[in-house]
Specification:
Radius of gyration: 21 Å
Organism: Mycolicibacterium vanbaalenii
CATH topology of the largest domain: TIM Barrel
CATH class of the largest domain: Alpha Beta
CATH superfamily of the largest domain: Metal-dependent hydrolases
Number of strands: 16
CATH architecture of the largest domain: Alpha-Beta Barrel
Number of domains: 2
Number of helices: 16
Protein name: Guanine deaminase
Bound molecules: guanine, zinc ion
EC number: 3.5.4.3
Keywords: Hydrolase, Metal-binding, Zinc
Domain Amidohydrolase-related: 66-440
Length: 466
């Protein structure tokens, strides 16, 4: 049945880039969002302009609540569901060794893996994350549990088992032979890619090839994965990994990759140029369905190459604060033209909620040195957390905003469920300039949303939070 949802609508219309998102910002204080039987948006506009043909449709009145596109988390770790706030006394590589590899190894137990899948989906829904690129478990039974539960809850997801063919002792349970890594990945694609509808264009479930990072695999693994990707690229399979996250001199991730592979840049290892001197050794894993998390310490050439191949960044400032990874340079990264989406990186980050990621993005970028410091526009924040995420997943044509014909993924935010948010919306100072007042309200909303504020969550027009 057609449904009319009433509330204050915010979204980014059309296909803006991050820089022109302020001019694409739509704010409809007395808005109506109409969803047809197929879960598609058939109208988004002022309530006063609601076409007469929707007059008899079922109406859900969320006022004075807000309607926002569902949040898109383009980097989150399923096997770290129970590893939030892990204390390891160190940055990335120590934290992986001491906290994360042992935590992920616990999913070897199928019952534990099932509990993790249930909790993971529950936390996602509570956070209003309707679509996500999910870094998967090494264990096929755990991935089966994740895909099964995700389908049961009606969520969108791209995921793939985390591939590790080398690593420290603490990762022993997660490491497989080169041959098994390839076989298990190919089997996961055959089993789960578009398994819900049988058609990649309509599916909610998709599979990614996920080498954990270059230090968890070898040149041989990267070569084989490139060949595998060549054989499945046209089926809409994804690639996901980490890039340039930690640059502690000498012992950090970036230096270790450059030393191990003897390459000019970290990105080269994912771009088929993983042989010493960045010589070509295989085919590239980059493209419109590739998302690389962090990208804090990129060379200009790396940013340019990501932009030219349509590879997206998952920006994870909460995690970068938690793990002492530094700050992705906002202006320089935006200037390269690469698409920048948002990731919690849970449990690298200690938040499940994309608006908390956007809030920390605002805080870290205003703190960048001198000319680099920037006050993000709230439309840019909303863009990064919604439409840019859909673009990173190469599904911008399907969701990410409220343009007519798109699948209706949205969240209902009820400020009264979070008194601090309600008060800043009701009692905060607003400019006499209408655009500024609009921006102030959106900023207050994005900074003030907590899990408690999210009243309802919809994917393809269906409620998933009940
Ligand atoms: N690099 C390799 N593995 C990981 C991980 O699990 N989390 C983060 N933040 N970075 C990584
Ligand atoms: Zn991560």
């Amino acid at each position: 049945m057609t449904q009319v949802h009433l509330g204050h609508v915010f979204h980014l219309a059309g296909r803006p880039g991050v820089a022109d998102s302020p001019s694409a910002l739509v704010s409809l204080p007395d808005g109506a969002l109409v969803i047809d039987d197929d879960g598609r948006i058939v109208f988004c506009g002022d309530r006063g302009r609601l076409p007469a043909r929707f007059g008899s449709a079922e109406t859900v009145d969320h006022r004075p609540g807000f309607l926002l596109p569902g949040f898109v988390d383009t980097h989150i770790h399923f096997p770290q569901t129970f590893a939030g706030d892990s204390y390891g006394g160190g940055q990335l590589l120590e934290w992986l060794d001491q906290c994360i590899f042992p935590a992920e190894s616990r999913l070897a137990d199928p019952e534990f893996a099932h509990q993790a899948a249930v909790e993971f989906c529950e936390r996602r829904i509570a956070a209003g994350t309707t679509a996500a690129m999910v870094f998967g478990s090494a264990f096929p039974h755990a991935q089966d549990a994740l895909f099964t539960e995700t389908r049961r809850r009606g969520l969108r997801m791209v995921s793939g088992r985390g591939i590790q063919t080398v690593g420290p002792d603490s990762a022993a349970a997660l490491i497989t032979s080169e041959e098994d890594a390839l076989r298990l990945t190919a089997e996961e694609i055959d089993r789960w890619h578009a398994a819900d509808t049988g058609d990649v264009a309509t599916a909610l479930l998709h599979v990614a090839i996920v080498p954990r990072f270059s230090l968890s695999v070898t040149a041989e693994t990267l070569k084989s994965l490139g060949e595998l990707y060549d054989s499945v690229r046209d089926r809409g399979v994804y690639v996901h990994s980490h890039l340039n996250e930690n640059n502690r001199p000498g012992t950090g991730e970036v230096d270790s990759v450059l030393q191990t592979y003897q390459v000019d840049s970290y990105l080269d290892t994912y771009d088929g140029k993983f042989l010493p001197g960045s010589q070509v050794g295989g085919t590239s894993l980059l493209g419109r369905r590739t998302i690389l998390a962090h990208c804090v310490h990129c060379q200009d050439a790396e940013l340019q190459r990501m932009a030219e191949t349509g590879t997206s960044i998952s920006h994870c400032p909460v995690s970068q604060l938690f793990l002492g990874s530094g700050t992705m340079p906002w202006r320089r990264t935006v200037a390269s033209g690469v698409n920048i989406s948002a990731g919690t990186d849970f449990a690298g980050g200690d938040e499940w909620l994309i608006p908390r990621v956007l809030g920390d993005a605002f805080k870290v970028h205003i703190n960048e040195a001198d000319e680099a410091g920037v006050s993000m526009h709230p439309a840019e924040m909303l863009f990064v957390g919604t439409l840019a995420g859909a673009r990173a997943l190469d599904m911008e044509d399907r969701f990410g905003n409220f343009d007519g014909g798109k699948e209706a993924d949205f969240v209902v935010v009820d400020p009264s469920r979070t008194p601090a948010l309600a008060n800043s919306i009701l009692r905060g100072v607003r400019s006499s300039d209408a655009d500024m007042a609009r921006d102030q309200t959106l900023f207050a909303l994005l900074m003030g949303i907590r899990e408690s504020s999210i009243a309802q969550v919809y994917v393809q027009g269906r409620r998933v939070d009940e």
